[in-house]
Write a structure and sequence with these properties.
Layout (H helix, E strand, L loop, with lengths): L10 E7 L6 H13 L7 E7 L6 H11 L3 E6 L5 H11 L4 E4 L11 H9 L4 E6 L6 H18 L11 E4 H7 L9 H8 L3 E6 L13 H14 L3 H30 L7 H33 L5 E6 L18 E3 L3
Parallel strand pairs: 1-2, 1-4, 2-3, 5-7, 8-9
Antiparallel strand pairs: 3-8, 4-6, 5-6
């Protein structure tokens, strides 16, 4: 029986693209050099998901797809962020092993074979750990904080670094594609899907050109996706905070009553009253904000806010891979051109 087109692809490399027109030709050249000299020769593909980049990245992707048969490009109608764009790439990836990496060449293409080997050896997912990160200081500190919070909220192993450079089995990709909400946090979906996870150490490279696309606002937005999109821990934290506040208020109330009984002439303390009111108001506002964040996300999901919309592809629409079945109303779509 002849093998289908999907069966002939053993390795897919999914790369979300944003403001990377200058680096894409070099990235593809390095990927080809690594994989053409490997066991995946003629059995790999590179999926470039253009996240509505404002530069000429889509034009470059189309040119690369014409030059190299293994390059498949999609362009999204709106900018949806790195994780949602990655989900768009996963939805058309055909490989038995799927690699996810960034588009800036800070992830060395040579490490792809080591990642794939871990999946061949039986692991479901393999992450990377950087020996020495080339990011600016605030990003390194923020990453450490995010790693600590992820350990607490997602119950991930404490020594596992959730890098954006990783490999997974197709079965894991199929599982996480069942998530159809508008706020995607891929690592949270992975941690919730399997315990068969390992990691390898790699060298972190300097950016090939330009500056990173993640600023403080985007980093905070990603943190909120992890906190409220993959865990109910913030709600539990709000509940615990409310309980502790109630207990502290009760103790303070007993103290005031006892003080009044022992010293009937004592004047009520204006400072303590104002401090108590401000403290209670602050905790209540915080808890209401946490609840509001969840309610807002529920509202957007119920209104069928799309996870992504594919506007154009560099290949025939009929060749679009069939993503995993989606439960509930579909949140992703492919616009036929």
């Amino acid at each position: 029986m002849p093998r289908t087109q999907r069966d002939q692809i053993d390795l897919s490399i999914v790369i979300p693209v944003y403001r990377s027109m200058a680096v894409l030709p070099e990235l593809i050249a390095q990927l080809r050099q690594v994989l053409d000299n490997s066991s995946y020769h003629n059995r790999f593909e590179v999926v470039l998901a253009n996240d509505c980049s404002p530069d000429q990245s889509w034009k470059v992707i189309k040119e690369l797809s014409q030059q190299h048969s293994f390059v498949r490009g999609i362009s999204l109608r709106k900018n949806v962020g790195q994780h949602n764009a990655t989900m768009a790439g996963l939805s058309i990836a055909r490989g038995k092993i799927i690699i996810i990496m960034d588009d800036d060449l800070q992830h060395p293409p040579a490490a792809i074979l080591r990642l794939a080997q871990q999946i061949e050896d039986g692991f479901d997912v393999c992450y990377t750990r950087y020996r020495e990160r080339k990011h600016v200081a605030w990003k390194r500190w923020g990453s450490r904080f995010n790693n600590w919070v992820a350990t607490l909220m997602l119950k991930k192993p404490a020594n596992l670094y959730l890098s954006s450079f990783k490999a997974m089995k197709r079965e894991i990709a199929t599982t996480i594609l069942r998530y159809d909400g508008p706020y995607t946090y891929i690592d949270g979906l992975i941690v919730g899907a399997t315990n068969s996870v390992t990691a390898i150490d790699i060298d972190h490279q300097e950016r090939f050109s330009g500056e990173g696309n993640y600023n403080l606002r985007k980093s905070l937005s990603l943190w909120l996706k992890m906190a409220t999109g993959s865990s109910i821990y913030p709600l539990r934290l709000a509940t615990i905070a409310g309980f502790c506040l109630a207990a502290a208020s009760f103790v303070f109330f007993l103290y005031v009553i006892i003080e009044w009984l022992l010293n009937p002439n004592v004047q009520p303390g204006w400072t303590s009253v104002i401090a108590t009111v401000l403290f209670i108001g602050g905790v209540q506002t915080f808890c209401m904000g946490v609840i509001g964040e969840y309610i807002g996300r529920i509202y957007l999901r119920l209104n069928n806010t799309p996870q992504f919309v594919i506007g154009q592809t560099t290949f025939d629409d009929e060749a679009v891979g069939d993503p995993a079945p989606v439960r509930g109303p579909t949140k992703r779509s492919i616009a036929r051109q």
